[in-house]
Specification:
Chain A has 194 residues and is α/β, with parallel strands linked by helices. Chain A is 34% helix and 19% strand. In chain A, the strands form 3 sheets. Chain A has a 5-stranded mixed beta sheet with strand order 5-4-3-7-8. Chain A has a two-stranded antiparallel ribbon with strand order 1-2. A two-stranded antiparallel ribbon of chain A has the order 6-9. Chain A starts with a helix and ends in a 6-residue tail after the last strand. The chains are: A alpha/beta (194), B alpha/beta (173).
């Protein structure tokens, strides 16, 4: 009788905990699912498309959020700095139309892929809530970092904590990522009614 | 003749004065916006100004469409429910205070108290406001000043939802 009660409690707790983590998307240390989304050239991109990747800088962003706009240059710089040494930026647009995404990538000459998450399923499964929202994945797709790019949205030069850079540098040097979670003000993701 | 001219000049001066006065009244009609730092915000949250009220802090910005959509709900609660005090905390860039925030307040004739939280590094501030907050806005912190209990909502409120949420709080012991 006692044993049954204990078992029930354990199952109950496990159920509650699994429910909690499910609704919040990915956490640091968990494995990310691969996806297949169309880039601005209509080619399908997945994490496995990058044969030589040592990891991935997945960034959920959008066209019009002032924070996303403030960071678009920094996102390009991250890609330019890290793609060739194994950490490409994979930007996933959370809510704009395909035409607008294509136009933005063209106008701003984005060096990184800018993917269209039509159903928003990838955005939801990762648990992105506000743009720009960064998920750094290790080679085996384990999440190493979730959060902001740095600690000053207004002025990149004034930022004295460059979270994404520090995390990627640590991973490239086979070191532990020291700051694994950060928060920033951002635009809430506009969920499509479906 | 000379006196008459002087009088005319006086009239013109008076007109100009009255005109400037009206212009001044018109321009200052929008409320003053206090620019605050996070420590001031935390102090406000901890030491309720109105001990017998429900204090609502709504985090918003002029660039945030869902925030602007829900502001009328907060305005109406602030005006109609004497047990509630609403403070709208703008997260706009402080450099845009005169260019964006004040004109917005004037245009929408906002009566709830507006403050602008002048910070750029929000990492620790967000979790201190509420552990569950992702940092996305709109977000609302409701403090029951009678008990000190805090309630946090990362969502856009409809008028019904806001009224229900607050009524439940007021009725709770």
């Amino acid at each position: 009788m006692m044993l049954r009660a204990i078992l029930l409690t354990i199952f109950g707790l496990a159920f509650i905990i699994s429910g909690m983590t499910d609704s919040q998307g990915l956490n640091v240390g968990e494995k990310a699912e691969d996806f297949s989304l169309a880039n601005v050239d209509d080619k399908l991109i997945s994490l496995d498309s990058y044969k030589n990747a040592k990891g991935y800088i997945v960034i959920f962003t959008c066209n019009n959020c002032p924070y996303a706009k403030a960071y678009q240059k920094r996102i390009a710089e991250l890609h330019n700095e890290y793609a060739t040494i194994g950490f490409p930026v994979i930007a996933i647009n959370t809510s704009d139309s395909k035409e607008d995404i294509k136009a933005r990538a063209k106008d701003e000459k984005y060096p990184f892929v800018y993917l269209y998450d039509k159903t928003q399923e990838v955005t939801k499964s990762y648990g992105a809530t506000n743009t720009p929202h960064v998920y750094i994945l290790k080679k085996d797709k384990t999440v190493a970092y979730i959060g902001a790019i740095d600690n000053n949205y207004k002025d990149a030069k004034a930022a004295d904590k460059r979270y994404v850079k520090d995390a990627v540098d640590a991973l490239l040097a086979n070191k532990e990522v020291t700051t694994t979670n950060t928060k920033a003000i951002g635009c809430s993701i506009k969920w499509k009614a479906n | 003749m000379k006196r008459c001219f002087a009088m005319k000049g006086g009239y013109i001066m008076r007109y100009i004065f009255v005109f400037i006065f009206h212009l001044h009244v018109l321009m200052s009609f929008g409320q003053q916006v206090d620019v605050i730092k996070s420590e001031q915000l935390f102090q406000m949250v901890e030491n309720c100004e109105y001990k017998d009220k429900i204090q609502v802090y709504n985090f918003w910005a002029t660039w945030c469409a869902p925030c602007i959509r829900e502001i009328p709900q907060f305005e109406s609660v602030n005006e109609l429910n004497e047990n509630v005090n609403v403070t709208l905390i703008s997260l706009d860039d402080v450099d845009l205070l005169n260019k964006k925030v004040k004109p917005f307040i004037l245009k929408k004739a906002i009566k709830s108290k507006v403050m602008l939280l002048d910070e750029t590094d929000f990492n620790e501030i967000i979790s201190r406001i509420d552990e569950s907050w992702s940092g996305a806005i709109p977000a609302t912190l409701i403090v029951d000043c009678r008990s000190g209990h805090k309630f946090f909502y990362e969502q856009e409120f409809t008028e019904d939802e806001l009224i229900k949420t607050i009524d439940n709080l007021i009725d709770s012991p």
